[in-house]
């Protein structure tokens, strides 16, 4: 993932929340076996502590619906879908001063984003929904880029391919018509990009990320 692009998108989401959310939001991204690898929340600590202490996540219709479906539902619609859920997380949220809220769930390729957001009106306006959909879609795409692994130059990819074929740095240098020192420097750059302590580990990562076949 491009950390610069991700930080910019996080900033845009925070700005959106400051403008639209009444009491905050929680967004989860890039779910692996139902667990988000990235969470962004702006809810006050008092609510987060209550939420955790009472294990609200187990009965929260925002989480339940958002993990199974895609689209948008407001709290009133969720109450109709899950009338018997206990503890009643939506009532607890309203007792804490939150008036209304919604869940938005979206998937782009293999990445999923779910956000629970509070607001004063019964539902978000169509304009606000579309803006949020677009922003979460961009963040899903950034998550998908992370799965693709680090960016390796064509020169680095060719080097890894040749190593996988059994060539040594000396043989690669002779084939390319460059110094062995230049090839060694390329090897170090590639290993650093892949966060690999050894060349063998770098090759494994290259196969994993399909940098080489």
Features:
single chain; 213 residues; alpha+beta; Beta-Lactamase; Arc Repressor Mutant, subunit A; 2 domains; five-stranded antiparallel beta sheet; 54% helix
Explain the overall architecture.
The protein has helices at 3-20, 45-53, 61-68, 75-81, 89-95, 126-147, 154-164, 169-176, 180-193, 199-208, and strands at 25-32, 35-41, 71-74, 100-108, 111-119. The protein is of the alpha+beta class and 213 residues long. It has 2 domains: 3-147, 2-Layer Sandwich (Beta-Lactamase), CATH 3.30.450.80; 154-208, Arc Repressor Mutant, subunit A. A 5-stranded antiparallel β-sheet has the order 2-1-5-4-3, with helices on both faces. α1 (3-20) runs antiparallel to α6, α7 (154-164) packs across α9 and α8 (169-176) crosses α9. The relative contact order is 0.12.
What's this, in brief?
This protein is an alpha+beta fold and 213 residues long. The protein has ten helices and five strands. The protein has two domains: 3-147, Transcription factor LuxR-like, autoinducer-binding domain (Beta-Lactamase, 2-Layer Sandwich), CATH 3.30.450; 154-208, Arc Repressor Mutant, subunit A, CATH 1.10.10.
């Amino acid at each position: 993932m491009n950390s610069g692009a991700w930080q910019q998108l996080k900033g845009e989401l925070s700005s959106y929340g400051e403008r639209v959310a009444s009491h905050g939001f929680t967004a989860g991204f890039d779910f692996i076996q139902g667990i988000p690898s990235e969470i962004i929340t702006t809810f006050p600590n008092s609510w987060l502590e209550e939420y955790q202490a009472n294990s609200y996540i187990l009965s929260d219709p925002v989480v339940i619906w958002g993990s199974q479906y895609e689209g948008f539902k407001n709290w009133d619609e969720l109450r109709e879908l899950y009338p018997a859920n206990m503890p009643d997380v939506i009532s607890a949220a309203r007792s804490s001063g939150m008036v209304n809220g919604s869940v938005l769930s979206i998937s782009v390729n293999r990445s999923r984003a779910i956000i629970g957001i509070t607001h004063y009106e019964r539902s978000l306006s169509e304009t606000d929904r579309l803006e949020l959909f677009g922003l979460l879609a961009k963040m899903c795409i950034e998550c998908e880029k992370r799965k693709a692994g680090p960016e390796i130059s064509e020169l680095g990819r060719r080097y890894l391919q040749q190593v996988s074929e059994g060539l040594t740095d000396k043989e690669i240098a002779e084939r390319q018509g460059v110094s062995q020192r230049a090839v060694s420097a390329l090897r170090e750059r590639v290993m650093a990009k892949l966060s690999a302590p050894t060349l063998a580990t770098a090759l494994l990562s290259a196969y994993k990320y399909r940098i080489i076949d």
